[in-house]
Amino acid sequence: MNPPAAITDGKISLSPYRHFSREEWAHLRADAPLTLNADDLERLKSLNDPISIEEVVEIYLPLSRLLSFYVAATQGLFKATQRFLIAERETKLPYIIGLAGSVAVGKSTTARILAALLARWPNTPKVDLVTTDGFLLPNAELAAHGLMERKGFPESYDTAALLRFLHEVKSGQKRVTAPLYSHLVYDRVPGEERVVESPDILIVEGLNVLQPARLPRDGTAVPFVSDFFDFSIYLDGHEDDLHRWYVTRFMRLRQTAFRDPRSYFRKYAEIPEAEALDIADRLWTTINLPNLRENILPTRQRASLILTKGASHRIEGVDLRRL
C-alpha cells in the first residue's frame, strides 16, 4: 500500500501524519471535561515551563479523549482474544505510553499533566509514571568507562534493565520495580526503588525511548524499548528555542535547587553569572545538542503523535500518525 498523500498548495506530499493546527486540534476536545484547576497545574509543571490552563484545554484534553478511545479499543481487542482462546481468567495488560523529546522541551510537565488527566477518567484507572533516568548507569560506572560527558546518550543507560522492566510490566506482573534517580545528586539513589503495581496505564518518559536497537551481526532479534509501547508521543521544538530554554532553566536553577548543599551542581550557584552562562552554553553545545541531533531527533518520525512547541513553549501544531 502506498503512503497517504496530502495536497498542499496544489502539490502532493507524502506523509504518514495528519497535521492539525492548534485551533483544529482544540475542536476535537468535544465533551471531555476539564478535571484540573490552576492549583493542580502549578503543582504539576516544571521549572521554566509556563504552561496554562488554556494549553490543557486545547491540547491535552483532546489528547486525553483520543487516548480514551485507543485504550477502550485495546481492551476490546483483549476481550475478543480472551473469547477466542477461551482464556477468561487472563487479566488485561497495562496500556503503555512512551514520551520522548529533547532536554528542556518540557517532557516532565507533559507526562505529569497527561498522567493526572488520565487518572481522572470515569472509573478512575490506575496510572503510573516512570522516567528512564532511573535506568542511567550509576555515575561511578559512567566515570569508569569515560561516559560522564555522554550522560543521556543511549550508551549511558542500562538498556537491558529497562527492557526487563518493560517486559515484566507488559507480561502482567503485579509488582515491578525500577531504580530511583535523584536530580539533586545527579545519580541513582542506592537501595531505593520506584514500585509499579498493576497499573492500567503506564507512561514512560525519557530522552531516547523511541531509539531503535542496533541490529546485531548474527541476526538475533533484539527488542526495542518502543516495542512495548501502545502509543508514543514526541515533544518537539526548534533547536534555537531548546537552547534558550535550557540556558534559562540552568540560570534559574542557580537560584533554587543548585543552592542546596547536597546538590551535585552546587558549585554553579556560587560562580559569577557570566561564567555560569558560558558553562550552560558549553553544556548545551557539547552534550545536549549532539545528543539531540544524533539520537533524539531522528526518532521523531517513529512517534504516534508529535506535539510541536513554538518559541513561547506554547504547542502550535499536532501531527497524528495515520492508521
Automatic annotation (TrEMBL):
Keyword Cytoplasm carried by entry: yes
Pfam families: PRK
Residue ranges of the TM segments: none
Catalysed reactions, semicolon-separated: (R)-pantothenate + ATP = (R)-4'-phosphopantothenate + ADP + H(+)
Location in or out of the cell: Cytoplasm
Record keywords, A-Z: ATP-binding, Coenzyme A biosynthesis, Cytoplasm, Kinase, Nucleotide-binding, Transferase
E.C. designation(s): 2.7.1.33
Family classification: Belongs to the prokaryotic pantothenate kinase family.
Name the UniProt record assigns to this protein: Pantothenate kinase
UniProt organism field: Methylobacterium persicinum
